[in-house]
C-alpha cells in the first residue's frame, strides 16, 4: 500500500472552566490516542455521533487545530514539526471542504475572486494562467462559466458546495479532508455531490478523509471506515465489512440506528442504555462499558486496545461480536 497520510497516537485536549464564575478547570480529551493511515487514492471515513471527536481530528490534519501529542505524517513529512513556510507549501497539497457551504464562502467575494485567491497566495501562475485554471476547475465541478461574476448568495446550497469543492481543487491537492460535506444539503443534492466527489477521486486519484454521521453516505463513498466514540477509534476496517457485521457493540448500535430505505425490512435493534458520559469525567476502563449490553467485569478495569479481530478488521473491545 502506497501510504500518503499516517496518523499515530493523536491527542487533542481542550480546557474548560477555571474562571471566577465558570467553576473548576477541567480537561476534555476530544481526541484520545487516534491512529490511522490513508493510501493514495483511498477514501477513509470517520463516523460517530456528535461530540465523538471526528471533526477535531479533521481539523488537526491541516493544523487548523494544533494537536497536543502524536504525529501526522504526510508523504514522509511530519506536519507537527513543519515550520510556517513548509506548512504553506503543504497546504497546497492538502485541502478541506467544510460542512456549511454558505458560511465557508466570503459573501463579499465573487466566485472568480474566491477561486483566484489561493492561486495568487501560492504564486501559481500569471493572470492568464490563473484564469485558465479557474475556468477548467469550474467545468470539473459542473458550474457554468457565468458563475464567475456572481456572489455566494446567488447560488443554491448544492451549487455553493460545488464552489467550495472547486476552491479546494483549484490547487491540485493530493488529499482532501471533507468535514460533513453533504449533511447540510437535501437528499437529492447529496447524491449529486457524492457522485461529483467520486468522479473527481477517480479522475484525479485523490485521497479523502471523509467525516460523516451518515452511514449510508459513508457506505457509498468510503473504502475503509473508522468508528469513533468519545475521542477514540473503537473499530476500523473495510466499510462493507464493518457496517454489515460490526465487531464492536457501539458500531452495531450505530449501524442499527441508521435509517433503512426499505420500509418492509425487519430490523433487530441492538440495545443501548444510559447517557453518553461527560467528556470531562470518563469512566474507568472502556468508555463505552456503562452503556454496553455485552459488558463484563474486565471492561471497567482497563482500556481495550485496537486489535485485529478478523483479517483486515480491528476493534477495541474485550468481547467483540464475532
Q: Mind explaining what this structure looks like?
A:
The chain is α/β, with parallel strands linked by helices and about 325 residues long. It has two domains: about 5-95 and about 175-185 and about 205-315, Rossmann fold; about 100-170, no CATH class. Helices cover about 30% and strands about 25% of the residues. The protein has helices spanning about 55-60, 85-90, 110-120, 125-140, 155-170, 185-205, 215-220, 240-245, 250-255, and strands spanning about 5-15, 25-40, 45, 70-75, 75-80, 95, 175-180, 205-210, 225-230, 230-240, 305-310, 315. A hairpin with a 2-residue loop joins strand 9 and strand 10 (about 230-240). The model has no long low-confidence stretch (mean pLDDT about 90).
The percent of residues in helical segments reads 25-40%
Which structural class is indicated by helix and strand composition?
alpha/beta
CATH architecture of the largest domain: 3-Layer(aba) Sandwich
Shape estimate: globular
Any idea how many domains?
2
**In the CATH hierarchy, what is the superfamily of the largest domain?**
P-loop containing nucleotide triphosphate hydrolases
Overall strand count: 12
Question: Key terms for this structure?
Answer:
322 residues; alpha/beta; Rossmann fold; 2 domains; 4-stranded antiparallel beta sheet; 9 helices; 12 strands
Quick recap of the structure?
The chain is of the alpha/beta class.
Would you spell out the secondary-structure blueprint of this structure?
Elements: E1 3-16, E2 26-39, E3 43-47, H1 54-60, E4 69-74, E5 77-78, H2 84-91, E6 94-97, H3 111-121, H4 127-140, H5 157-169, E7 175-179, H6 187-204, E8 207-212, H7 215-221, E9 224-229, E10 232-238, H8 239-244, H9 249-256, E11 307-310, E12 313-315
Helix pairs in contact: 4-5
Amino acid at each position: 500500500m502506497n501510504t500518503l497520510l499516517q496518523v499515530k497516537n493523536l491527542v487533542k485536549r481542550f480546557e474548560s472552566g477555571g474562571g471566577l464564575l465558570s467553576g473548576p478547570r477541567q480537561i476534555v480529551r476530544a481526541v484520545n490516542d487516534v491512529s490511522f493511515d490513508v493510501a493514495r487514492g483511498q477514501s477513509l471515513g470517520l463516523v460517530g455521533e456528535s461530540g465523538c471527536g471526528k471533526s477535531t481530528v479533521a481539523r488537526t490534519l491541516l493544523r487548523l487545530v494544533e494537536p497536543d501529542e502524536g504525529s501526522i505524517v504526510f508523504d514522509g513529512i511530519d506536519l507537527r514539526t513543519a515550520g510556517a513556510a513548509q506548512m504553506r507549501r503543504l497546504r497546497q497539497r492538502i485541502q478541506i471542504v467544510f460542512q456549511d457551504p454558505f458560511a465557508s464562502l466570503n459573501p463579499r467575494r465573487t466566485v472568480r475572486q474566491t477561486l483566484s485567491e489561493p492561486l495568487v497566495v501560492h504564486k501559481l501562475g500569471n493572470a492568464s494562467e490563473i484564469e485558465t485554471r479557474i475556468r477548467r476547475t469550474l467545468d470539473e465541478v459542473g458550474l457554468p462559466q457565468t458563475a464567475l461574476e456572481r456572489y455566494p448568495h446567488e447560488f443554491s446550497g448544492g451549487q455553493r458546495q460545488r464552489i467550495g469543492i472547486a476552491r479546494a481543487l483549484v490547487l491540485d491537492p493530493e488529499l482532501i479532508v471533507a468535514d460533513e460535506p453533504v449533511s447540510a444539503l437535501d437528499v437529492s443534492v447529496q447524491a449529486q455531490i457524492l457522485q461529483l466527489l467520486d468522479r473527481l477521486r477517480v479522475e484525479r486519484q485523490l485521497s479523502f478523509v471523509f467525516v460523516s454521521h451518515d452511514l449510508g453516505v459513508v457506505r457509498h463513498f468510503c473504502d475503509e471506515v473508522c468508528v469513533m466514540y468519545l475521542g477514540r477509534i473503537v473499530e476500523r476496517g473495510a466499510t462493507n465489512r464493518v457496517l454489515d457485521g460490526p465487531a464492536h457493540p457501539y458500531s452495531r448500535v450505530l449501524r442499527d440506528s441508521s435509517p433503512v430505505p426499505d420500509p418492509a425490512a425487519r430490523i433487530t435493534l441492538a440495545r443501548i442504555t444510559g447517557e453518553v458520559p461527560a467528556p470531562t469525567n470518563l469512566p474507568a476502563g472502556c468508555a463505552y462499558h456503562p452503556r454496553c449490553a455485552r459488558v463484563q467485569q474486565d471492561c471497567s478495569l482497563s482500556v481495550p486496545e485496537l486489535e485485529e479481530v478478523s483479517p483486515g478488521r480491528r476493534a477495541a473491545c474485550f468481547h467483540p461480536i464475532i
